[in-house]
Amino acid sequence: MGKIVTLQQSIMAEDEKFASSIRKANQKRGLLMVNIIGSPGCGKTTLLEQTAKSSGLSFGVIEGDLATNRDAERLHALGVPTVQVNTHGGCHLQAHVIEKALESLPLDGLDVLFIENVGNLVCPAEFDLGEDFKAAVLSTPEGADKPLKYPYLFRSSEVILLTKTDLLPHLPFDMKMFEEDVRSLNQTAPVLRIDGIGGQGMSEWTDFLKGRIAEKRRG
Ligand SMILES: Nc1nc2c(ncn2[C@@H]2O[C@H](COP(=O)(O)OP(=O)(O)O)[C@@H](O)[C@H]2O)c(=O)[nH]1
Ligand SMILES: [Mg+2]
Ligand SMILES: [Zn+2]
Predict the structure, then answer these.
(1) What is the rounded distance in angstroms from the CA atom of residue 29 to the CA atom of residue 133?
(2) How far apart are CA 163 and CA 167, in angstroms?
(3) Does residue 196 have its Cβ closer than 6 Å to ligand 1?
(4) Cα(197) to centroid of ligand 3, in Å?
(5) What distance in angstroms lies between residue 7's CA and the mean position of ligand 2's atoms?
(6) Which domain CATH number covers 181?
(7) Count of domains in the chain?
(8) Which residue segment(s) compose the domain that 139 sits in?
(9) pTM, whole model, 2 decimals?
(10) pLDDT tens-digit series, residues 119-147
């Protein structure tokens, strides 16, 4: 048992080196990198599709999934430079994979690089990929009780997106509890309400990104 723990620590320590080298390289480039984390089906790819259609930002994407290149195809169809990473059963992305994926993206001239992490509210939040910040995504059908059940993600993200707000009239979603629970975990992250189909809330998301891009460029 002790040996297993030692092995995990050494792999994570190795990975931290990759994360820190990615962070340094993006600092030089002035490129903002955002790690998007949420359950399967919460609307991560839809958010990126809407961002491509409405934000005016130039961005690239690293897509993480166990299998298929379906999400990359959705973004390619909109002209977004995208690299698909398949983890073949792995439930999160790690920095050494991101370092490799970065080699196949045209990074010059991008405003922002998004990582769509493997759909999972648990371990993706624990692995540093060299990003500037994590964005937690929760969709309304998943339930208002989820932030307290998966506290690490909501505590450690710098923006929280509540998606599928168009479905609220059909759901017993306790907005007051959701907002109070989120605030008890995280006092600073803006909580943005997004309808990824109709586009409501996209301008707040775009404004948030533009603020962070400008900050990053100032250094
Ligand atoms: N009603 C509604 N459906 C959405 C919204 N965002 C995504 N969906 C749907 O939810 C499903 C999963 O979306 P997807 O973006 O693939 O989720 P991902 O697995 O997190 O990337 C698809 O059928 C989307 O059309 C939204 O804001 N409202
Ligand atoms: Mg997706
Ligand atoms: Zn995992």
Answers:
(1) 16
(2) 9
(3) yes
(4) 29
(5) 31
(6) 3.40.50.300
(7) 1
(8) 2-218
(9) 0.96
(10) 999 999 999 999 999 999 999 999 999 99
